[in-house]
Amino acid sequence: MTYRIAVLPGDGIGAEIVPQAIRVLEAIGAKYGLSFTFTEGLIGGIAIDKTGQPLPAETLELCRNSDAILLGAIGGPKWDDLPTHLRPEVGALLPLRKELGLYANIRPCHTYDALADASTLKKEVLAGTDMVIIRELTGGLYFGSKGREDIDGVQKAWDTMLYSTPEIERIVRLAFETAGHRRKKLCSVDKANVLESSRLWRETVNRLAPEYPDIAVTHMYVDNAAMQFIRNPGQFDVVVTENTFGDILSDQASMLSASLGMLASASLGGHVGLYEPAHGSAPDIAGQKKANPIATILSAAMMLEYSFNRVAEARAIEAAIEAVLAKGFRTGDIMEAGKTLVNTEEMTDRVLEELA
Amino acid sequence: MTYRIAVLPGDGIGAEIVPQAIRVLEAIGAKYGLSFTFTEGLIGGIAIDKTGQPLPAETLELCRNSDAILLGAIGGPKWDDLPTHLRPEVGALLPLRKELGLYANIRPCHTYDALADASTLKKEVLAGTDMVIIRELTGGLYFGSKGREDIDGVQKAWDTMLYSTPEIERIVRLAFETAGHRRKKLCSVDKANVLESSRLWRETVNRLAPEYPDIAVTHMYVDNAAMQFIRNPGQFDVVVTENTFGDILSDQASMLSASLGMLASASLGGHVGLYEPAHGSAPDIAGQKKANPIATILSAAMMLEYSFNRVAEARAIEAAIEAVLAKGFRTGDIMEAGKTLVNTEEMTDRVLEELA
Ligand SMILES: [Mg+2]
Ligand SMILES: [Mg+2]
After folding, report:
1. Radius of gyration (Cα) for chain A, nearest Å?
2. Owning domain of residue B14
3. What is the spatial distance between Cα B119 and Cα A217, in angstroms, rounded to a whole number?
4. Cα three-residue angle A68-A73-A75, rounded to 5 degrees
5. Are residues A140 and A241 in the same domain?
6. Together in a domain, A273 and A333
């Protein structure tokens, strides 16, 4: 089986970290008998510089004809003053998600024993934290109708949180299925005590639940979830929620980890999934071999799991990273006294050694 | 000067903690030459039991004719099965806020050195945390038009986040003024990169800022704020935000404290402010003298500061509590090995000793 991967390094450290994930995928391929083709495309600021467009038509075409997409990071100060629709994030990421029908953002939050001291939360609070946040990505408040009205000098502005049953159903099903590969617990987060859209969300979860009898379903209000993420994050397995709540909670949950350099993400929905680190292009350290490649390598592991159903291969990568951290190797973002500082490539070398 | 206080103990531990705050107010009055009249009214479950109504007309009238309201807590399992409009929270608190025009909820979040070990965050992360969250309470997503439509078997449900300039202006002014009594930093939290209502919010903040030249204003996106509250809470002084974001962030911030039993709150806006602990009626420990009275005593201190502009008196109460904690006195909710367990009244006795 050959998997066709569209490779979009993008800007800043993207060009340094994406090749590291490719090295790991190639090693996994050799070990488990998978083969990959990697085809590079332009996206973001570098695409603007070379073609005038943040998302060139050829890149979109490449993505459509691939089995999965590996993205680095996009944007940087060089392109911040462009008109909004040309800016890398708005001009590339949003249309890419839209064109590919990527309605679900998946953010694992797994804490590593070896890094537990690096979080602002206490080690014993973090122990055993291993959750996946599934955020609806194309509906709700950010995409509903919005506007402004001026009545006798009084401005009114509004946004609409709108969801339809099919929009809720597809992401909730994805969440049930994800929980099925994991610890079989699903927590749906809403504000059903006050929001009508949340009541429809909760009814939909409850209507689908009998189809997944092995999954234990709970509901939690979003304000309580924001407390529980800090109080006892180990209680969660899979969390599913709408767009705005997921935006807030997934960024909050990122602090349970030692560094943004550890956080992978996937955007799913259509026939091709997009995998990228949760961090940005970090122009301040670009070109210095300082970037932590782990988030991108873990994103490649998610690709194996979510797009190719290669769960054992994904677990092997995760275990290799766990081992490298336990042996004390650290990039600058997670460096502590007494550990061994390594650069981007050296960190990957260590991961490959574990996989060998 | 005599201040007329409406006293609404409510349900559960409310009847135990409210008298403690009154004792402290009386001591402050004797020391600083203020006098108070305290008039009790019924609210919540106990009001349902005695009058059939969670917010009797006499209680509302009492509140209207007072200078401030001291509330305990309302609700409990006994009244949970009543129809929604009769339930203590929906039937009493929402109409009370509405009738009194209380559009701003104020939640201080101050961490005590003596209790820093009790939070799930590391002591060094919490050091120096002393912020006030000002949440808009009567607009936004929870109160905008909402509904549901069934088109060919597809349900759609929506809620509207709506704000007008005057609604934003009044709460933002309150936030600027609050920052003026404090460390003179105001952080306005929104999602102006995607929401039109947030753009109007941010424009309004920026338009008013020149009127408060001594206040340093910053803007932060809500997802980033949820990260920063855990990453470095000491960076905040006054935070102002709309209803839903404030609901999530203030509950999240409550985890920075050692216990809900430490958290005061105020609801302001009209001519009479409402002061109450952030915790509930705790029916499980009611009547056992176990409740922590500090949140209610701190709410009385907020009353002195926000309703009566008696800032020195408020600071004296806060300092007394700090001293009592430093001496090792603890109610059950904040008890640790090596400290002295005290009951509700004994904790207040210690505070009064410090004030003497
Ligand atoms: Mg975000
Ligand atoms: Mg809340």
Report:
1. 20
2. 1-111+259-356
3. 28
4. 135
5. yes
6. yes
Looking at the structure, do residues B43 and B69 belong to the same domain, yes or no? yes
In a domain, A166, yes or no: yes
- Cβ-defined contact of B248 to A244 (cutoff 8 Å): no
| Total structural domains within chain B | 2
pLDDT in tens, A57-82: 999 999 999 999 999 999 998 998 88
Per the annotation, binding residues of B for NAD(+) are 76-89, 280-292
**Domain shared by B244 and B268, yes or no:** no
Residue B119 belongs to some domain of the structure: no
Ligand nearest to the CA of B89: 2
The pLDDT assigned to B265 comes to 97
Q: Based on the fold, state whether residues B309 and B244 are members of the same structural domain.
A: no
Q: Which helix (H) or strand (E) holds B13?
A: none
Domain termination residue (choose one: A255, A287, A314): A255
Residue B257's pLDDT is what?
A: 87
Q: What is the CATH number of the domain that holds A347?
A: 3.40.718.10
Nearest in space to A137 (alpha carbons), one of A276, A21, A230, A11: A276
Average pLDDT over residues A331-350: 96
CA of A96 to the centre of ligand 1 (A): 17
DSSP for B83-142 reads -GGGSHIIIIIHHHHHHHT--EEEEEEE--GGGGGGSSB-HHHHTT-EEEEEEE-SSGGG
- Secondary-structure breakdown of chain B: helix, strand, coil percentages, each rounded to the nearest 5: 50, 25, 30
In-domain check, residue A110: no
Grouping H, G, I as helix, E, B as strand and the rest as coil, residue A192 is coil
pLDDT tens digits for A115-173?
A: 888 889 999 999 989 999 999 999 999 999 999 999 888 999 999 999 999 999 999 99
Among chain A residues, the shortest Cα distance to B255 is held by: A227
H-run or E-run covering A220: strand A216-221
Cα(A68) to ligand 2 centroid in Å equals 40
Mean pLDDT of A183-196: 96
CA neighbor of B213 nearest in space, from B258, B245, B250, B180? B180
* Residue B118 domain-assigned (yes or no): no
The partner residues of A190 in beta bridges, in order of sequence, read A221
- Answer yes or no: do A245 and A134 share one domain: yes
Residue of A nearest to B121 (CA): A121
Q: Which of A73, A22, A14, A20 is nearest to A278 (CA)?
A: A73
Instruction: Give me the average pLDDT of each 10-residue run along chain B (356 residues).
Output: 95 97 98 97 96 96 98 92 81 90 95 86 92 96 94 94 97 96 96 94 98 98 96 97 97 90 94 95 95 98 96 96 96 94 98 97
Question: What does the pLDDT average to over A247-258?
Answer: 92
Note whether B191 and B289 are same-domain residues. Answer: no
How would residue A85 be classed by pLDDT, with cut points 50, 70 and 90? confident
Instruction: Examine the domain organization and report whether B219 and B286 are in the same domain.
Output: no
- Render pLDDT for A103-121 as a digit per residue (tens, 0 to 9): 999 999 998 888 888 889 9
Residues from chain A contacting residue B156 (CB–CB below 8 Å): 162-165, 200
Answer with the one of B207, B229, B255 that is the final residue of a domain. Answer: B255
List of chain B residues whose C-beta atoms are within 8 Å of the C-beta of residue A194: 141-142
